[in-house]
Here is the input.
Amino acid sequence: MTAAAIAPPRRRMRLPATWRRPLALVGAAVIVIWVLISVLAPVLPLQDPLHQSSAVLTPPSAGHLLGTDELGRDVLSRTLWGAQVSLPLAVVLVLASLVIGSVLGAVAGYIGGIVDEVIMRIADLVFAFPTIILAMVVAAALGPSLTNAVIALTFVNWPNYARVMRALVLGARGQEYVIAGRLLGSGPFTSLRRDVLPNVASPMLVLATLDFGNQILLLSGLSFLGLGAVPPTPEWGSMVGAGVQQFSSWWLATFPGLAIFSVVVGFNFLGDALRDALDPRTAGAVQGTTV
Amino acid sequence: MTARLEIDEATVTYRQPGRRSLTAVDHVSLSLEAGEVLGLVGESGCGKSTLARAVCGLEPLASGTIRFDGEPVGKLGLRPRESRQRRIQMVFQNPYASLNPRRRIGAQIEDARAVAGRDAAPVERLLEQVGLEPAVARRYPYEFSGGQRQRIAIARAMAAAPEVLIGDEPIASLDASLQARIASLMRDVALEQGASLLFISHDLSVVRVIADRIAVMQAGRIVEEGPTDRVWSDPRHPYTRRLLAAIPIADGLGRLPAEA
Here is the structure.
């Protein structure tokens, strides 16, 4: 049996341990700041991110702290407003992948047999292509828009969750407490909901957290390639994409790039800490860490 | 009149890829009367746990039948277990794996009470019956020791008002001082409710204390079966004699313990 399956539910006791890691705090702080920015963008003293002016491609100055772009729009304003575009879409994308992948993976792992074969071979098919290439193909086929980019990325992303979920369910299915539930007359649905899923939720949560940064990167990547956000939406990836064409104006690509970088790093720090805290094998190491 | 549990020529085979199939249970016939305690002993790997799983419908039979109150026990597939067969309940070997770590004790016993319907005893009474405070119903499994968890597992099994209770090596992972206590507890709670008990163990000395009859299993077959006293004092099969000879002697006089 696995250590995870017989470990007591120490979530309440362990979460504080997460925060004893300095990197976890940094990661959480970065994400909280970005969430606040995305919520507060309309009330912050920012210029209209879509407002064009004759002051094109001005370097950072007192009037425009991060300079202006080729249409005279304020880069600071566009970068901060960009959080409102990328973060909610990443949440939708990760949640959709998590739900679809978990359901299919749990069904495959629990039922097994032909159902398992069919689901996992479809997943293998998706795995067989490089993620970004396949996402590009799907996004291009659907037409460039942020919604289609999210659909395309969900399509290439769910197998990651399905594969992990299937393995976890396969491990938990044979546990004696699951069998005990079956002997008491639980059907597959009750058994999964009551006995299996609560005991495999933590690794899935960690996976989703670590996946956030990745998905923001991919979403920006599609926009960078012109397959996601359409102008004039202030999306980070498309801003970087437009910026690299104005090579002498370094501020155009640098600041949205830093925004992507900070969010990705933030989610990775947080995901690492969550993994260490929720995994019984490394929990002791976390608790032993002094700050 | 038919026995409550009738195992007739039951055979369980495992297919092993690339190798010969393994017959874990080989034409075993046993019966269990109402209110009877049958001890099933044998060494590790002799097939006794497989037999227990087959009785619960967890292993398909290659041949033979297992009947519970005259009705054949089917293989448990994806469908919910047939309600009649929910009156066969099991206490597992590993008390650390047999309780859901994420649910309160009380909730897990409540699930089992649903099986018993109107026959269900209150959770408090079930816990008291196994020697635990009623207040523990609100706690999680990790707050308990192995022995306490096994008591909880027994309470859960009994909450379903079983007519056949199976203990699949329920004392194997407990320390020596607890083994006899938990074994006796299982006998007491089963008989108090009028259930039959199939108690599986490799420890003949513990089984002897609680069983009315003993069946000895070796390599998938029953090699000897009889009333406890007879098997203990007059073992007929060489394997039974070897098992008896392997029991550690406590008094150093070269006699079996509890014989005097």
In short: The CA atoms of residues 47 and 138 of chain A lie 35 Å apart. The interface with chain B takes residues 1, 5-10, 111, 175-177, 179-188, 190, 194-195, 198-199 of chain A (CB under 8 Å). Residues 75-111 of chain A form the longest helix (37 residues). DSSP finds twelve helices and no strands in chain A.
